Amino acid sequence: MACCRRCVHCFSRFRTHANGVEAERWLKQAMNGGFDGAISVLGMAYATGSAGIPTDISLARRLMTQAAEKGDEQSARMLEMTDKRQGMFRNLKKTP
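The structure corresponding to this sequence follows.
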């Protein structure tokens, strides 16, 4: 579990431009290992395309909603930004 915390910390602090497949794999492993912080980080990575992870707003919203329900305030703020089309999400197309 210490490795998972370290990986999530490095990813979120330094926003590495590492191999997206590897970043995604490690974050999913941390998430599946019970580290709730990885849910938020992976959701935000899908929302922003960080670390070479392809943007997927639908998946990002699902993960950020899950993280927000667990008390993650940053995920809740990012969800609000997507809903209001603010900041980097101002050009986001509405979904039916």
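Residues 2-14 form the longest helix (13 residues).
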